[in-house]
Amino acid sequence: AQKVTQAQTEISVVEKEDVTLDCVYETRDTTYYLFWYKQPPSGELVFLIRRNSFDEQNEISGRYSWNFQKSTSSFNFTITASQVVDSAVYFCALSVLYSSASKIIFGSGTRLSIRP
Amino acid sequence: GAVVSQHPSRVICKSGTSVKIECRSLDFQATTMFWYRQFPKKSLMLMATSNEGSKATYEQGVEKDKFLINHASLTLSTLTVTSAHPEDSSFYICSAKNGQEDATEAFFGQGTRLTVV
Questions:
Q1: Is the CA virtual torsion A54, A57, A58, A61 positive or negative?
Q2: B44 in A contact zone (CB under 8 Å)
Q3: Which residues of chain B have pLDDT under 70?
């Protein structure tokens, strides 16, 4: 069975602080994809990143960075110099099959609040 | 990027009526679409996988007769909440995968907030 755990239910930091959102996943498959999505109050899901299981390189995109470690089954997300606009619910997700029918399993989400 | 349009974005209906939610892939063909349900401050729970031209595959615990899914074309899937009750009030989101490209990336609709009164 596949599972995604986001242990942090809510995080609140002051603007300009760095914040890391944790994600731990479980799967017996050797081939899988990991995702991060942002859900602002409007409700729509905003795609942030996709990483396949064979690519453990960390990635940086502006103020966002991701640390993928297969040894600990973790795919953590760091926001540097946070801004109020970063306030949202962030979901980590897992997809285990290379096919159009593969479904995405979501973690419970972390509600991030950035205080001015 | 690929666009998935979901309609309506909000709907309020009376208890006992049925509501249809549409999910369209605007610039690609989606052989598979997914329907998720999200309770307030909760995660997205997969309800069913919608396959074009065949019956949907429902997740355990999801009532097939309650949540009717039709995927009649490669660009449209519909979710009908039949005989809706207040406990069906929720946020419903669809997603679609482009069958012609990298099938691991799913594109999500804007979501539909259903309120049953």
A1: negative
A2: yes
A3: 1-2, 99-104
Chain A touched by B3 (CB under 8 Å): no
How far apart, in whole angstroms, are the C-alpha atoms of residue B95 and residue A34?
Answer: 16
Q: Are B43 and A106 a contacting pair at CB < 8 A?
A: yes
> For residues B69 and B96, what is the distance between their CA atoms, to the nearest angstrom?
14
β-bridge mates for residue B70, sequence order: B78
Q: Alpha-carbon distance A96 to A94, whole Å?
A: 7
Measured in whole angstroms, the distance separating CA B30 from the mean position of its chain's CA atoms is: 13
Q: Minimal Cα–Cα distance from A18 to chain B, Å?
A: 24
A13 part of contact set with chain B, CB < 8 Å:
no
Phi-psi region of B49 (alpha: psi -120 to 50; beta: other; left: phi over 0): beta
Q: Pick the residue of A5, A8, A96, A100 with the most B CBs within 10 A to test the interface with B by mutation.
A: A100
- What was the pLDDT predicted at B80? 97
Does residue B54 sit at the A interface (CB-CB below 8 Å)?
no
Whether A33 contacts B97, CB under 8 Å = no
Which residues on chain A are in Cβ contact (under 8 Å) with B109? 44
Q: Residue A12's beta-bridge partner residues? A: A113
pLDDT value at position B28?
A: 84
* In contact, B114 and B86? CB cutoff 8 Å: no
